[in-house]
Amino acid sequence: MGTPEPDDDLHNPDPRRDLKNDRGGHIFTARGIANLGCLFILAAALIFVFVLPLLTHLLTKKQTTQGGFNLGGTNATGQIASIPGNWGLIDVDTPKEAYTKASYMDPGDTWELVFSDEFNTEGRSFYPGDDPYWEAPNLHYWGTNDLEWYDPSAVTTKGGALAITLSKVDPATNHNLTYKSGMVSLSNKFCFTGGLIESQLYGINDI
């Protein structure tokens, strides 16, 4: 045991040598900062993958069916089909503050928006098959014996509004009727059992 060996300096402490080697050191080393950076990235990734979706699920207010089949979607889970472009049930131009509304009968009851159309796209066509929700029929409303023929050409969008034009025409080109106008319908395209319908109407009041 008393025989010196070549590696004794590695195992035997030397206060003077060790003090010289350790002097001037600090905890903020490049390796330490790199380790902390990796830990931060891992923690952020875990939060993004696991915590953020959970918070989004718990804090997002879910719309209800309000007694209907669903939110107008294609299945019973309330999922709404995503249609490319601005063809969803709720117009992308509809203000977020219009998504809910207090009931007129009970202010504590909140109603939820299920369909909207701002008609902001210029020159839309409502001929059968041209629009997923609205359709302008080509007919004479014989139930009230109207003086006009309802024609899809009389319905379009202009200036951020639905434009329905009433015009006087040659009866020879208008099914023997002097006037031509238009109407739009959601029949068999978007149906609901109850709720509130709101609209802003513009027109000439001296016809």
N-end to C-end Cα span: 121 Å
How many helices?
A: 3
Shape designation: rod-shaped
Assembly category: single chain
Largest sheet report: 3 strands, mixed
Low-confidence runs: 68-75
Helix percent reads 10-25%
Overall pLDDT level: 82
Question: What order do the helices and strands come in, and which of them pair?
Answer:
Layout lengths: L7 H4 L3 H8 L7 H30 L40 E3 L7 E3 L35 E3 L4 E4 L2 E4 L2 E2 L10 E3 L26
Parallel strand pairs: 3-7
Antiparallel strand pairs: 1-2, 4-5, 6-7
Architecture overview:
There is one protein chain. This protein is of the alpha+beta class. The chain is built from three helices and seven strands. It has helices at residues 8-11, 15-22, 30-59, and strands at 100-102, 110-112, 148-150, 155-158, 161-164, 167-168, 179-181. The strands form three sheets. It has a three-stranded mixed beta sheet, with no helix packed on it. The protein is rod-shaped, with a radius of gyration of 36 Å. The N and C termini lie far apart (121 Å). The model is unreliable at 68-75 (pLDDT under 50).
